[in-house]
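Record pair follows.
FIRST:
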Amino acid sequence: MRHMGLCLLVVMVILLPLTGDAQETKDYSKAIGVFKSSPQVQPFFKNCYGYALFPTVGKAAFVVGGAYGEGQVYRGGKVTGTAKLMHASFGLQLGGKAFSEIVFFQDKRAYDEFTSGNFEFDAKMSAVAVTAGAQAQAGSSGKSASATAGPKTGAQAETAYNSGMATFVHAKGGLMAELAVGGQKFSFQPL
């Protein structure tokens, strides 16, 4: 078990350069632009109550996995606070990846639920290879699916609101394969 922890630490240190660029991490307009360029995501920007954007989330795993990202929460097009995404998982998984994530809130109830910091369990199977990837997820928060064809296209698989939320992921880089069970926690700090 000690060796697994050491390997996870090494993978995280290798992954830090993917998430450590403060300029890129704080460039929310670039990440928003990538998501807005996708025809499947555009309707969510037009009809949502609000959204949370995480420009860069870093994830690493060797049996035990972890992910972390910082972002902003928007309501009515204005920033209402900051958010942190933390994810822990256990299962058949190996590698590291960086991605952008956006969570749309269909209504006030979904926004309030997200900003309360509720903990969600999920079970997922995904594969991300350098700049192209596919991901599917099913859990207590519902089902979702997303795919990216690379950083320039931002093309996404079709999805819809589930329990008032819709999530899209855009692969930025890395190599990871996993079949894992874990939990994702969001924390919110109002401005």
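SECOND:
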Amino acid sequence: MKVFKDKIKQEESIDFHIRWAWYNISRMYNLQASSFGGSMALGYALLNIEEQGTSSTKLAPKMGMEPRSLTRMIKSLEEKGLIKKEIDAQDKRIVKLFLTKKGKQQRDYAKTIVLKFNNKIYEQIPQEELDIAFKVISKVNEIIDNNEIFN
């Protein structure tokens, strides 16, 4: 087991590799999304709005975000004509988000891009290696979620 005392080389840092991969994935998705005036974050939101509508309070957790961080994104989606808001018929306190026709088209495009990326990764990296990667990332998240680092 490797233990670091005072210094760590960048290429040995776990967070460096995760951040580097995420930066590249994010850049790739943003480049694709920019062709329709969107962003990776907007595409991800479109992918997480269900056909029967999704309440704005449930969308943030589905995206791994804080609910208060979503307000600007929802406004942007609405301004671009990708979603519409409707008050829930049974519970007037709930606002549901629905995709417009344009929003569904954009979601389909985002879905195509995500599938292309995933298919290419699955083509080039053996399942056993991906299983190990998923297990490691899950364990990193578990360590963080359980606050095991600073206790």
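COMMENT: The chain has a mean pLDDT of 90.
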